Amino acid sequence: MTAPSVASPVTSIDDLLPAIAARREQALERYRGEITRHLASQQRANMVLQSLLATVGQIYDETLRDLEALDLTTTAIAVDQGRSALTPPVLGAFQGFSARLLEQALNFNAASCALSNFADEQQPDAEYLNEIQIELAAAWRSFALEANLRLLPPGSKQA
């Protein structure tokens, strides 16, 4: 069985996991597109950070839309300390995602002729890398909370 493309309909959590894997595989290509867009529009400040955030944001948003579209009967789903039993498999599909994408992006940037005139972006220093990691973690936290919220039974969702 082949993994569904990102455009394949997602009708269950089991369908969602391969869709997430496909999105993860496309992440570097999406990042490269974001870097190109920033260079073309001359938006060069924090290019790497903005491109990474745009990339993960797209992937997280697509996954949240898939979760929203699922016709799940969550009333029988266990909830432990505010977390749906469906949340761990969804979040687990993203394990290592940000770190891997950051590593791939840095490798791409180091070899990029287009970024060679932007040393701070081509080879970010420790402070900039820390900022990137903090922002990626914040995006992850926001996604994780929203994904869990969408997987909770109706009566346990808090405003």
Secondary-structure topology with pairs:
Elements: H1 13-40, H2 47-69, E1 79-80, E2 83-84, H3 87-92, H4 97-111, H5 119-122, H6 126-151
Helix pairs in contact: 1-2, 1-4, 2-6
Q: How would you describe this structure in keywords?
A:
single chain; 159 residues; mainly alpha; two-stranded antiparallel ribbon; 6 helices; disordered N terminus
Briefly, what is this?
This protein is mostly helical. The chain has helices at 13-40, 47-69, 87-92, 97-111, 119-122, 126-151, and strands at residues 79-80, 83-84. β1 (79-80) and β2 (83-84) form a beta hairpin.
Structure commentary:
Mean pLDDT is 87; it is low at 1-6. The chain is mainly α and 159 residues long. The chain is built from six helices and two strands, in the order ααββαααα. The termini are far apart. α1 (13-40) runs parallel beside α4 and α2 (47-69) runs parallel beside α6 (126-151). It has helices spanning 13-40, 47-69, 87-92, 97-111, 119-122, 126-151, and strands spanning 79-80, 83-84. A two-stranded antiparallel sheet has the order 1-2. Helix content is 64%, strand content 3%.
Quaternary status: single chain
Number of helices: 6
What percent of residues adopt helix (DSSP H or I)? 55-70%
| Mean pLDDT reading | 87
Q: What order do the helices and strands follow?
A: HHEEHHHH
Radius of gyration: 18 Å
Cα distance spanning the termini? 41 Å
Cα shape: elongated
Q: Numbering strands along the chain, what is their spatial order in the largest sheet?
A: 1-2
Global structural class: mainly alpha
Strand content: under 5%
Question: How would you characterize the largest beta sheet?
Answer: 2 strands, antiparallel
Low-confidence stretches: 1-6
Number of strands: 2
